[in-house]
Amino acid sequence: MASSTLSLSLSLSLSLSSNKQQQQQQPPTPLSSFLPKPKFLHPPFNPKLISFSTPKIICASSSSSSSSSSQVMDPFVSPTQPLAPTVVDVDLGDRSYPIYIGSGLLNQPHLLQRHVHGKKVLVVTNNTVAPLYLDKVVHSLTTGNQSVSVESVILPDGEQYKDMDTLMKVFDKAIESRLDRRCTFVALGGGVIGDMCGFAAAAFLRGVNFIQIPTTVMAQVDSSVGGKTGINHRLGKNLIGAFYQPQCVLVDTDTLNTLPDRELASGFAEVIKYGLIRDAEFFEWQEKNMQALMARDPSALAYAIKRSCENKAEVVSLDEKESGLRATLNLGHTFGHAIETGVGYGQWLHGEAVAAGTVMAVDMSYRLGWIDDSIVKRVRDILKQAKLPTSPPETVTVNMFRSVMAVDKKVADGLLRLILLKGPLGNCVFTGDYDRKALDDTLHAFCKS
Amino acid sequence: MASSTLSLSLSLSLSLSSNKQQQQQQPPTPLSSFLPKPKFLHPPFNPKLISFSTPKIICASSSSSSSSSSQVMDPFVSPTQPLAPTVVDVDLGDRSYPIYIGSGLLNQPHLLQRHVHGKKVLVVTNNTVAPLYLDKVVHSLTTGNQSVSVESVILPDGEQYKDMDTLMKVFDKAIESRLDRRCTFVALGGGVIGDMCGFAAAAFLRGVNFIQIPTTVMAQVDSSVGGKTGINHRLGKNLIGAFYQPQCVLVDTDTLNTLPDRELASGFAEVIKYGLIRDAEFFEWQEKNMQALMARDPSALAYAIKRSCENKAEVVSLDEKESGLRATLNLGHTFGHAIETGVGYGQWLHGEAVAAGTVMAVDMSYRLGWIDDSIVKRVRDILKQAKLPTSPPETVTVNMFRSVMAVDKKVADGLLRLILLKGPLGNCVFTGDYDRKALDDTLHAFCKS
Predict the structure, then answer these.
(1) Buried-most residue among A347, A400, B56, B235 (CB within 10 A)?
(2) CA distance linking residue B105 with residue B249, whole number of Å
(3) Is A180 within 8 Å of B413 when comparing Cβ atoms?
(4) What is the CA B137 to chain-centroid distance, rounded?
(5) What would the pLDDT profile of B163-189 be if each residue is shown by its tens digit?
(6) What one-character-per-residue DSSP string does A222-266 give?
(7) Does the distance separating the beta carbons of B230 and A411 come in below 8 Å?
(8) Would you say A57 and A43 are in contact if contact means Cβ atoms under 8 Å apart?
C-alpha cells in the first residue's frame, strides 16, 4: 500500500510541474535560441489528421524541488538532487505508459522500479551494449530493492540476428530461470533488441510485462515507442510479431555518448521523417540544427528526441493497430525494407535504408505532381547534412525491389499502399491510389533493371 | 453491401429459432430420455462464480424452414434443406464469435464464407487430416465464391511437432504465398493444429484473422474455443503463445466418424473436467451416458460437445486472460503437462495425461480433507468407463514432476497454484494456499522418487 501511494504522488508531481521548472532542466550548454517557443500542448500539426480524437499529450518536466513531500517519501532520491525527466505520455486507455527522457535517468532507480512487476526481471541486451550499461541497469533495478532478482541474456548484435533462432535464446533463458507470469522483461539496446524483447514478452507464457531502455537514437525516437514488436523473416522485415505495449520507456540520453557516428546519423532519418509527414515546424528546426545534432549537442539531441516522441505518441494514441494514420510513420520504409532485405540484413543500418527510401518516396511524390521541387531538394539537402545515403546501393535491382515490396505488410488484397508526400511541407497520404507508372519510373531512376 | 445484408439476416434466423425446431434437429437415434431438460439459459452452475458479470450464452438452433426470405437470398442453401447448426456464442465484446455445432456443417459453405476476410485463405492442417477433409474444406470455402484463393500447408501430425521449427513452416508458406493482412488462416485438425495455426495467425504480420475447424473431441469441446494459442518448449507445454480469438469455430460432428478410439476417449477427459469443476448435473449425465459416448451415439456426442462448449464459453467470457476463474479449466493439467513433458511429447495423448492428472488432483484434494471419498471413487470409475488412465506412467518420477511443475504458467512469484476440488461435486478452487505435504504425499503415492 505504501509503495502505491508513493508512486502516485511522484507521478502527480511530474505532471504538474511548471514551465519555470522545465527551463531549469536545460543542459549546461543551452541552445534555447534555436528552439521554437514551447507550444506543443496546442500542436500545429495537421489538425485534419487528429480531428477524430483528442489525445492526451503531456510534455511536462519537473525539478526535484517540485514537492518536498514526495522527496521525503522516496528512499531513492539522492541527496545530489538529480535532474527529473521530461515525461511524454502515450495515451492508450488502460495500456497507457510514460516515456521518461533525460540525462542520468539510469542513476534514478525509482523510475525503473515503479514499473517492475513481480520479483524476477530478465534483461535482454546484446554483446555491444552489455559491457557498457548492463551493470548500471542491474544496479538501478536492485538498489534499495533486494527482493528482486535479475537475470540477463546477451544476444549477438545486429539486424541479421533479429530472427527466430535468436529469439528462442530469450525463451530458453526465461524458462531455465523459471520466470513466471509476474516477471518483467527489460529491453536494453537499440531497435533490434527492443523489437525482439517486446515480442518475447508478448509470447512468453502468452504475455508478461516489459520495459524499454533504448540506447540508440533510432530506438529513442521511434522503435521503442508504440508497441510494434517482432522479428524478420528471410523474405521480409518484421513479418512475424505482435502489437504489445511496454510498461514504460526510459530514455537516458547519456547512453548516446557511446553511440558510433554511423548509428547516430541512422536515427536522424526517423527524426527527419516526423518533420516531413506531419510537423513542418520541426523540419525547419532540423534544417537549422542538423550540424548541432551531428555534433551531439546535448540540448539539441534532447529536444529532437522529445519532439519525436511527442509526434510518435500522438499518432500511436490515435491509431494503435495501424488502421490508417499510423502507417504514415512508415514514410520511406517500404522502399527501405526492400533495400535492407535485398542487400542482406545488417549490411545497411535501418535508418540508412529509410533515408534512401525516403528520397525514393519523395521522388515518386514529385513525379505524381503532388509536391513541388523545393521539397525534393530540401529532403536531399538535410539527409546529406546528416551524412545519410540518398540512393539505394547499386546491387539492389528493380526486380528485387518489386519482389520484396510484394510481401510488405501494407499490401491489402494484392494492392501495395504507400506513404507519399502531398501538398505543402508536413503533409502526406497513405494510399494505394496512384499511377503505377510513377512507381516504375522511380524504381528505374534509382536502380538497374 | 449485398453480402453484409445476407449475413445479418442469416444470423438472426439462427438466433431466433424455437424449441420445437431444436427438437427437429435431433439425430436419427434420439437419446432424449438421457438428456436433462434444457435449462441452460438459467444455468445452475456455481452462481457465486458468475456474480460479477452476466455472460450472454445463446444455445439456439434453427431449422432451414425458419425464414423463407433468408433461403431465397442465400445462394448456398441446398435444396436438400441441411440441418442448421446449434450456435453457442462466446461473448467477448467486439471480439465475440459463434461456435457452430452440428452434422454436415462442412457442406454448408455460407457458414465458413461469412467469416472469411479478404481474398486469400491459408488452411493449416496435418498429414492425417488432410487426406480426409482438406478437399471438402477447400470446396466449402470456394463454392459460389470464385474470388477467394486457398493455399494450404500440411504439417506432420503429433504433439511432438508443436514446436517453433514446425510453426515456421506456416510462416514460410504464408509469406511465399504473398498473403497480406486481409487474409484468413483456417485451422483444420485437432488441438495441436488449432493451437499452432492460432499462434501463427496472431503473429503473422502482427495479427490476421483465423477460423477454427476442430476435428477431434478434444479440440471440439475445449482447445478450439477461447483463444489460447501457442507451442511447446522442450522444458514445458504451451510456454510460448498468445491469447488470440478466432472469427468463428465450426464443429462438424461428422468429422468424428474417422477419429480413432484412443483419440475419442482422450477428448472425454476434458468433458469430464467440466462436470467436476462447475457442472455436477453434466457429470451425472456423463455417468449415465459414458457407454453411449464411447459407442459414438450421435446425439450423446452432440449433447456433450454443446454442453462443454457452453461451459467453456461462459468461463472465457468472464475471464478471457486467465486472471483467476479461467484457470479452473486446467483441473488435472499441471500434473498432466508434467506427464506429457516427462514422458516425451506425443507418447501420451493430452487427454490421457489430463485423466491421470485429474486423479492426482482429486487424490490431493481428498488428502487435504476438501472432498469426501465418494467423489474420488466416482472420478476413477468414470475415467475407467472411458478407458482412460488413472495413474501416470511408471517412468515419470517425483523429481520429474517437481521439475516440470516448477515452470508451469500457474506459478506466481515462485508459488505453484493448483486447481483442486473442494466441497460437493461440481465445486473447485484455484489456490496456492495448501499444505505442501499433501502435494508431496500425492506425488509419492503415484510415482517413484
Answers:
(1) A400
(2) 11
(3) yes
(4) 20
(5) 999 999 999 999 999 999 999 999 999
(6) IITSS-EEEEEETTEEEEEEEE---S-EEEEGGGGGG--HHHHHH
(7) no
(8) yes
At residue B233, what is the residue type?
H
| Residues of A whose CB is below 8 A from B204 | 239-240
B41-62 pLDDT, tens digit per residue, is 333 333 333 222 333 333 333 3
Q: What is the pLDDT of residues A165-216, one digit of tens each?
A: 999 999 999 999 999 999 999 999 999 999 999 999 999 999 999 999 999 9
Q: Is B324 on the interface with A (CB under 8 A)?
A: no
- The DSSP-derived string for A137-156 is HHHHHHTT-TT-EEEEEEEP
Coil, strand or helix at A285 = helix
d(CA B411, CA B418): 9
Q: Does the annotation mark B233 as catalytic?
A: no
Note if A42 is an active site residue.
no
Q: What are phi and psi of B252, to 5 degrees?
A: -90, 110
A444 has catalytic annotation: no
- The upper half-sphere exposure of residue A298, i.e. CA atoms within 13 Å in the direction of its Cβ, equals 15
Q: DSSP label at A61?
A: E
Q: Is B126 a catalytic residue?
A: no
Pick among A205, A234, A238, A243 to test the B interface (most B CBs inside 10 A): A205
Residues of chain A with C-beta less than 8 angstroms from the C-beta of B172? 233
Secondary structure in 3-state letters for chain B: CHHHHHHHHHHHHHHCCCHHHHHHCCCCCCCCCCCCCCCCCCCCCCHHHHCCCCCCCCEEECCCCCCHHHHHHCCCCCCCCCCCCEEEEECCHHHCEEEEEECCHHHCHHHHHCCCCCCEEEEEEECCCHHHHHHHHHHHHHCCCCCCEEEEEEECCCHHHCCHHHHHHHHHHHHHCCCCCCCEEEEEECHHHHHHHHHHHHHECCCCEEEEEECCHHHHHHHCCCCEEEEEECCEEEEEEEECCCCCEEEEHHHHHHCCHHHHHHHHHHHHHHHHHHCHHHHHHHHHHHHHHHCCCHHHHHHHHHHHHHHHHHHHHHCCCCCCHHHHHHCCHHHHHHHHHHHCECCECHHHHHHHHHHHHHHHHHHCCCCCHHHHHHHHHHHHHCCCCCCCCCCCCHHHHHHHHCCCCCEECCEECEEEECCCCCCEEEECCCCHHHHHHHHHHHCCC
Among B183, B192, B152, B188, smallest CA distance to B170 is for B152
Minimal CA separation from A330 to chain B, in Å: 15
- Single pTM value for the model: 0.83
Pairing of strands A236-243, A228-233: antiparallel
Rounded to whole angstroms, the Cα distance separating B67 from A398 reads: 56
Tell me which chain B residues have a C-beta less than 8 angstroms from the C-beta of A204.
239-240
* Rounded Cα distance, B244 and A205, in Å: 13
Q: Do A242 and B206 touch (CB under 8 A)?
A: yes
Distance from CA of A402 to the nearest CA of B (A): 12
Residue B110 falls in the annotated catalytic set: no
Query: Which pLDDT does position B369 carry in this prediction?
Result: 98
Q: Does B176 touch chain A (CB under 8 A)?
A: yes
Q: Which chain A residues have a beta carbon less than 8 Å from that of B171?
A: 233, 239-240
**Cα torsion B254, B258, B259, B261: sign:** positive
The per-residue pLDDT for range A124-170, each reduced to its tens digit, is 999 999 999 999 999 999 999 989 999 999 999 999 999 999 999 99
User: Buried b vs exposed e over A27-45: b needs ≥16 C-beta within 10 Å?
Assistant: beeebeeeeeeeebeebeb
Q: How far apart (Å, rounded) are the C-alpha atoms in residues B343 and B392? A: 9
Identify whether A326 is a catalytic site residue: yes
- Scanning A84-190, the segments in alpha helix (DSSP H) are 109-113, 135-142, 164-176
Confidence of residue B444 (pLDDT cuts 50, 70, 90): very high
